[in-house]
Amino acid sequence: MTDFSPRIAIIGTGLIGGSLGLAWSDRKPDCRIVGHDRPEVLDRAFDRGAIDERAADPITAVSGADIVVFATPVGATVKLMESVAEHLKDGAIVTDVASVKSPVMEQAADVLPKDIHFLGGHPMAGAETSGIDSADSLLFENAVYALCLPEGTSQDALSGNLYPVVNLIESTGAEPVVLDADRHDRIAAWVSHLPQLLAVALMNVVDDLDDDMARQLAAGGFRDMTRIASSPFSMWRDVLVGNQGRILDALAGFARSIQGMRNRLIEDDIDALDDAFEQAGQARERIPRDRKGFLQPLFDIVVRAEDRPGELHEITGILLSADLNVQDVELLKFREGTGGTFRLGFDDSDDADEAVDVLNGADYAARRLE
Ligand SMILES: NC(=O)c1ccc[n+]([C@@H]2O[C@H](COP(=O)([O-])OP(=O)(O)OC[C@H]3O[C@@H](n4cnc5c(N)ncnc54)[C@H](O)[C@@H]3O)[C@@H](O)[C@H]2O)c1
Ligand SMILES: O=C(O)C(=O)C[C@]1(C(=O)O)C=C[C@@H](O)C=C1
């Protein structure tokens, strides 16, 4: 594996598995990627260039693979890991992308043979959509990628036995962050799993008003807070099962906070909420800005795009040829099906101005976002 052109098996070529495949096909062209999923998903992954080979079953996929990536829902990952364990190549590295780490880490410790190296993974990037059609080679750009080492594995393994998979993760543009599974799951309960439930609850209480005018008045604030309300339950069910206790703690903490606000309103002590707003404003400022999602690179542009495959690729290609480094990309979904607008973020104001000029020169409608 020293030549860094490993054979990679991706089990589950949906949103996350497909996005990894697309990123590696682009940036690690020497890798050979074999995928396993349902036949129709595999065909689509192959047509999109996310995989080089289709494997009809998981055992065929992992046979001979240097690196195996499970990108299936948590429950399926746990089951599949056991069913392929005995068929893994000696010395292979196994990783996963599950949103909750403890169940996967425990299963890896239980079922993987001693000569297999395991590294738990969780890209902190995703979407409210699922499936291979939503996969995007830029999904992990600037995203934090949580890595969990098995108990008893030293951090040195990240630059040793596990290096090939760390290198692949870094090649997607993601930034690895190492922490243990328990801490990961406790924090993910607060910053990812709780917000998912809140988005669903908020969307539904407004829906229950059954007032069309509410839907019309809902603007940016409501949209920002409910984007992930459309995430698929098929993925989230396993996360809720796998992290139930910690999510209950987070829900209890949230309930206390909201009840506190309610009490201040009941007591007509509105000004007492000033501290809460102050704390929230300051806390949000402390979240790193150079991260996907939160990223407000200081210099943004917007560009109109047609609703056709490859559009983003073309735009980023134009910028790359002009030596302009895009730090973040976001599709602002205003009118689905009729195209949309991308927000592109740059480190530098001059780069943002130049990007507007270059794109306008290539017949795109681009402008600075103030
Ligand atoms: N969606 C996100 O935002 C996000 C972000 C980070 C991590 N994750 C994690 O990534 C994993 C995959 O999520 P996703 O969003 O890509 O979902 P997805 O539905 O887009 O993709 C999952 C794929 O796995 C396939 N699959 C399911 N069971 C299978 C089985 N037994 N054998 C073979 N293939 C099987 C499905 O057909 C599907 O193509 C989950 O563990 C999830 O927790 C998701
Ligand atoms: O939809 C997005 O933007 C996401 O990044 C989704 C998100 C999250 O932020 O909590 C959801 C679950 C995953 O495990 C990781 C990422």
TrEMBL record:
<dbReference type="InterPro" id="IPR003099">
    <property type="entry name" value="Prephen_DH"/>
</dbReference>
<keyword id="KW-0520">NAD</keyword>
<keyword id="KW-0827">Tyrosine biosynthesis</keyword>
<keyword id="KW-0560">Oxidoreductase</keyword>
<dbReference type="InterPro" id="IPR008927">
    <property type="entry name" value="6-PGluconate_DH-like_C_sf"/>
</dbReference>
<dbReference type="InterPro" id="IPR046826">
    <property type="entry name" value="PDH_N"/>
</dbReference>
<dbReference type="GO" id="GO:0008977">
    <property type="term" value="F:prephenate dehydrogenase (NAD+) activity"/>
</dbReference>
<dbReference type="InterPro" id="IPR002912">
    <property type="entry name" value="ACT_dom"/>
</dbReference>
<comment type="pathway">
    <text>Amino-acid biosynthesis; L-tyrosine biosynthesis; (4-hydroxyphenyl)pyruvate from prephenate (NAD(+) route): step 1/1.</text>
</comment>
<feature type="domain" description="ACT">
    <location>
        <begin position="300"/>
        <end position="370"/>
    </location>
</feature>
<dbReference type="InterPro" id="IPR036291">
    <property type="entry name" value="NAD(P)-bd_dom_sf"/>
</dbReference>
<dbReference type="GO" id="GO:0006571">
    <property type="term" value="P:tyrosine biosynthetic process"/>
</dbReference>
<keyword id="KW-0028">Amino-acid biosynthesis</keyword>
<dbReference type="InterPro" id="IPR046825">
    <property type="entry name" value="PDH_C"/>
</dbReference>
<dbReference type="GO" id="GO:0004665">
    <property type="term" value="F:prephenate dehydrogenase (NADP+) activity"/>
</dbReference>
<dbReference type="GO" id="GO:0070403">
    <property type="term" value="F:NAD+ binding"/>
</dbReference>
<keyword id="KW-0057">Aromatic amino acid biosynthesis</keyword>
<dbReference type="InterPro" id="IPR050812">
    <property type="entry name" value="Preph/Arog_dehydrog"/>
</dbReference>
<protein>
    <recommendedName>
        <fullName>Prephenate dehydrogenase</fullName>
        <ecNumber>1.3.1.12</ecNumber>
    </recommendedName>
</protein>
<dbReference type="InterPro" id="IPR045865">
    <property type="entry name" value="ACT-like_dom_sf"/>
</dbReference>
<dbReference type="Pfam" id="PF20463">
    <property type="entry name" value="PDH_C"/>
</dbReference>
<dbReference type="Pfam" id="PF02153">
    <property type="entry name" value="PDH_N"/>
</dbReference>
<feature type="domain" description="Prephenate/arogenate dehydrogenase">
    <location>
        <begin position="6"/>
        <end position="295"/>
    </location>
</feature>
